[in-house]
Amino acid sequence: MAAVVATMVVGPLVKIMMENSSSYLLNQYKVMKGMEKEHDILKRKLLLVEDIITDAEQAAADAEQAAADTEQAAARRAGAVAWLEDMKKVAYKANEVFDEFK
């Protein structure tokens, strides 16, 4: 008698748990698939940002050699250097996020 009652109670409970588990796993799979797509997009953008940083650093170095040492040129270089440092920090943080995602 106890076995019949246990079967009547446990059977539906196990079925509900399996349905909930499979639903949860399916949702997690969908989230991860979406994250992979976003990861690829962000990685491509990060590569572009890194290229821009490299080009800007080269341009700043070229401009520093070519420009007369005027106050205005120095101010522009200082602003460009500050911007490049900010961009580098963002790029490093993005790389850290990508490393954690792997």
Write up this protein.
- This protein has 102 residues and is mainly α.
- It contains 2 helices and no strands.
- The protein has helices spanning 2-66, 71-101.
- Residues 14-101 form the Disease resistance N-terminal domain.
Write a concise synopsis of the structure shown:
By secondary structure, this protein is an all-alpha fold. Helix content is 94%, strand content 0%. It starts with a helix and ends with a helix.
- Compute the number of structural domains: 1
Number of DSSP E strands? 0
Principal-axis shape = rod-shaped
Along the chain, the helix and strand elements come as HH
Largest sheet, strands/sense/barrel: none
Calculate Rg over CA atoms: 28 Å
Residues in helix, %: over 70%
Classification by helices and strands: mainly alpha
Produce the secondary structure layout:
Layout: H1 2-66, H2 71-101
Essential attributes:
102 residues; single chain; 2 helices; rod-shaped; mainly alpha
